[in-house]
Design brief:
alpha+beta, Beta-Lactamase, binds adenosine-5'-diphosphate, 13 helices
Length: 439
């Protein structure tokens, strides 16, 4: 038996012994026994009262007790001390966390599951115009821009959105919402005015330079062509040089055209109402044009397995698909085979352009959609390339909510897949007689 219980029992036995002794002296047992029980009860009530009084205070020092009560007070005191230490540690951590978030240059707002403001840092006050009085208010009552309100209500927070600051139209904010602890949200807003301005300047610069270069390049090329057309006026020794100059000028012209097209894609907003594009017809058209090229090239097989139409810009889609098919033709030997396949998937539709060409080394796959990125080995084999074709494809797909997937095996061939989501696809039942197995 532990020490507190031993002293508790010995205390009780002493009291009982005294009661029995009084009973023996008085030759009556009932009153002393009742007295014994009353004393025991009174003692426990007294200590319970003191315990409660102590629990209501914040002091560390518990009341003195004896028997089991001494042990109870002691244990409770240890528990309270541990609890206070943990609380102090948590408070310190919380303070540090708050100081860190206060120091963040980005606006940070903690939202409840009903999007009510629970807490916000100084930057949020500055950038979003929040005041302490706004605590508990719904965030969409304070930031009322339709884009933000619909972002909040859609509940798809995978990508950030860009809005202007509520109190200053000239400040652009990138807003991201991150769910945390199951039923709360963290709203983070970053000032991207400077970044967007630099990006716009870069785009304008590229567009202006390309635009300014276009005319001189066309004029010089025109003169060169004229010179080369006149058999007698050019010294035969100069002819190869002029031919090379003409080739390089043609390359420069492709480059300028592609750059201009890319900047147009970047700067022009998408049409508010995308039109349904008959992809089958579009691909048939492109493949027919490719087939009519006089130079020997790989055979092109067109397989239309879906009547699905794509909601988008026909010209943009044409340029993306043309780029992929032209690449397949460029990088596949004449003995090879190119397959252009349009089909439906469980999440939308897909165009696959595959070839049995030279393939792309794995280490370059992640980068070939970057502007001007060309696989070093192919640079010499195809000097006419600009390195902008796949960047255009990627951009067009982005504008159509699609994405590009590339697979390739060196020496065996490549496959470029353009996936389009359900929202962009109008699926129609397939008419069997319209299936075009080959172009
Ligand atoms: P380019 O004008 O050089 O073709 P792209 O952006 O269209 O530029 O392509 C980038 C690079 O990707 C090309 O230089 C080439 O090395 C590689 N590439 C693209 N398509 C194919 C393909 N079908 N087969 C092999 N390599 C390819």
């Amino acid at each position: 038996m532990t020490h507190p219980w031993r002293s508790e029992i010995s205390l009780s036995l002493w009291a009982l012994f005294i009661a029995l002794w009084i009973g023996w002296l008085q030759e009556s047992w009932l009153v002393p026994l009742w007295l014994f029980i009353a004393v025991l009860l009174a003692r426990h009530i007294y200590f319970t009262y003191r315990l409660l009084a102590w629990l209501r205070t914040e002091t560390n020092q518990p009341p003195d007790g004896n028997g089991v009560w001494e042990e109870i007070f002691h244990r409770l005191r240890l528990m309270r001390r541990r609890h206070q230490r943990r609380k102090r540690r948590l408070m310190k951590m919380l303070k540090r966390f708050r100081q860190a978030t206060e120091a963040l240059p980005d606006a940070t707002v903690v939202l409840t599951k009903e999007f009510e403001i629970d807490w916000f840092n100084k930057a949020a006050g500055r950038m979003l115009g929040l005041k302490p009085i706004d605590l508990g208010m719904r965030i969409d009552n304070l930031i009322r821009q339709p884009m933000f309100v619909s972002y909040l209500h859609k509940g798809n927070f995978r990508h950030p959105i860009s809005i202007s600051a509520p109190h200053n139209e000239n400040i652009r904010l990138e807003v991201r919402i991150v769910p945390f602890t199951g039923n709360q949200y963290l709203l983070i807003a970053q000032d991207v005015t400077q970044i967007q301005m630099l990006e716009r300047q870069r785009r304008d610069f590229v567009a202006n330079v390309s635009h300014e270069l276009r005319t001189p390049v066309t004029v010089i090329r025109g003169y060169l062509e004229n010179l080369l057309d006149q058999e007698t006026s050019v010294d035969p020794a100069l002819r190869p040089t002029l031919t090379r100059m003409e080739e390089q000028l043609q390359r420069l012209q492709y480059l300028v055209d592609d750059l201009l097209y890319l900047s147009r894609l970047e700067t022009t907003p998408q049409g508010a109402k995308p039109r349904p594009v008959n992809v089958g017809d579009l691909l048939t058209d492109i493949c027919r044009e490719m087939e009519s090229v006089p130079e020997p090239h790989a055979s092109i097989h067109l397989q239309i397995d879906s009547q699905a139409k794509l909601l988008g810009e026909k010209q943009e889609l044409r340029s993306a698909f043309e780029n992929l098919i032209t690449n397949a033709v460029k990088y596949t030997p004449a003995s090879g085979k190119i397959t252009v396949h349009w089909f439906e998937t469980s999440h939308g539709a897909c165009l696959e352009v595959s070839d049995t060409g030279e393939g792309i080394p794995q280490q370059h796959l992640a980068r070939i959609t970057e502007r001007f990125y060309r696989v070093p080995e192919t640079e010499n084999r195809n000097p006419t390339g600009t390195g902008l074709g796949l960047a255009i494809v990627k951009h067009v797909l982005n504008r159509h909510e699609g994405h590009l997937s590339i697979k390739s095996q060196l020496g065996k061939g490549s496959s470029f897949r353009c996936y389009f989501p359900d929202a962009r696809v109008i699926k129609e039942p397939m008419e069997l007689e319209q299936t075009t197995p080959e172009a």
